[in-house]
Specification:
A five-stranded mixed sheet has the order 2-1-3-4-5. It is globular, with a radius of gyration of 18 Å. Helix content is 30%, strand content 16%. The model has no long low-confidence stretch (mean pLDDT 96). It is of the alpha/beta class and 165 residues long. The longest helix is centred in the middle third of the chain and has 13 residues.
Amino acid sequence: MTGEFADLLEANRTFAQTFDLGGFDGVAHAGIAIVTCMDSRIDPLGMLGLTPGDAKIFRNPGGRVTSAALEALVLGVHLLNVQRVLVVPHTRCAMTKYSEVELREVIGEKAGTDASWVGFHVVPDQEAALKADVMAVRSHPLIPDTVAVGGFLYDVDSGLLEQRI
């Protein structure tokens, strides 16, 4: 083992000293699922006044409803008490700054190898993407109409969440 993760393992030992979440059943106690971006400025539980155990959280670049996100939502709805789904992209998202070609070039330059074959799924129109993502959840044949689905935009500078759909 190397020391590259020693600081994190030490922090984990400190965390574990007061850990009181053992034995949780894994269901979403508040009935919430959140699809949001992987951006570290987003605290999905905190922004909604929730605590661990309240919600299922799926994160990816851009906060998109991908096939993997839909799979997680179907499981959440049928096995984990999810009754409301929030799709939450955010302001100043890196996935909205580049075209697909530009992002491939940037990544290729940084990686030192061709990245033209990778799809990064940039978001040229965040509002249109949010509408499409909410519709993908609402129209999924395995997610019943009884599940409330909303589209929101999180402002990384104010901490405010605005419902858009």
